[in-house]
Amino acid sequence: MSKSKNKVERIMSYIFFICGIVAIAAVFAITIYMIASGVPAISQIGLKEMLFSTEWAPTAADPKYGILYIILTSIVGTTLAIIIGVPIAVLTAVFLSEIAPKPLAKVVKPAVELLAGIPSVVYGLLGILIIKPIIYKIELLVFAGDTGHQMTGGANLISAVLVLAVMILPTVINVSQTSLQAVPKHLRSSSYALGATKIYTVFKVVIPSAKSGIITAIVMGVGRAIGEAMAITMVAGNSVNLPLPFNSVRFLTTGIVSEMSYSSGLHRQALFTIGLVLFVFIMLINVILNVTLKKAGDDE
Question: Span 258-274, mean pLDDT?
């Protein structure tokens, strides 16, 4: 019997080792491919011209490949979505984990999990049907009589940010709730024994104890937001402009999606460079996550 168990353990160790090698190889392959595909355009256009120029006109007689506004739009849009979505998501997770009656939590939690499975295009449709008309009415009120503003019909940065904020909710809620539930019960009991209220215990004991998991949830939400394409294409307006609230804008992902089908030559290579920039952002997010979690672990 022991020999049979040892054989199974050896087989499983080999399987795990192969899976790890495949995962590492996939990361290296993607990295090499993105660098090989994105660098040629930089060498022809110039790093400074591409990253710090604001004009994007790849099909013009005198092509321009500046992506600064596109980069800024992704940074600003993702940041605003996180600022709006994360507090709502974390407080919802706290409610489900610590405050809500169990019958209510059993109803709300599956609904939140269902949100995570909804396709991106459905969020985009909801943005078109619900968010865009509301933002357009606000735009009409704000810019009434202003002939210098080009109306976007509600397809602007604000609409994109609101859609992104909704899309990151299920990811942040689910991971944060799992982290909160993993906090040992004796920490809560000790706090109550010292006379602390439930709310004080939640915010001073439970949340600090679960901070590493909550940070992970936030970073996962950032990754979801910065990598989204389909839903944002439907509500952002898809024009290269400075990322102001009522401007039609283009994100890094939407820039690739909207032009890849008809691009060729240097134009196509420039789109791969945009993908490389996006890839670098994702890698930086992962590095920040690892450093933050390590510090959180050291503090504990």
Answer: 88
In order of 55, 56, 205, 207, the CA distances from 62 in angstroms are 11, 11, 61, 55
Q: Tell me which residue has tokens 């321009």.
A: 64
CA–CA gap between residue 142 and residue 158 (Å, rounded): 13
Structure tokens at 230: 């389909």
Evaluate whether 127 touches 163 at the Cβ level (below 8 Å): yes
Q: Does residue 206 contact residue 98 with C-beta atoms inside 8 Å?
A: yes
249: nearest Cα among 156, 121, 179, 145: 156
Q: Rounded to the nearest 5°, which phi and psi values hold at 65?
A: -130, 35
Q: Which of 71, 167, 177, 66 is nearest to 119 (CA)?
A: 167
Model confidence over 72-120: pLDDT tens digits? 999 999 999 999 999 999 999 999 888 888 888 888 888 888 888 888 8
Token pair for residue 274? Answer: 């945009």
3-class DSSP state for residue 199? helix
Under 8 Å between Cβ of 172 and 93: yes
Q: In 3D, which of 258, 277, 283 has the Cα closest to residue 72?
A: 277
The pair phi, psi for residue 92, each rounded to 5°, is -65, -40
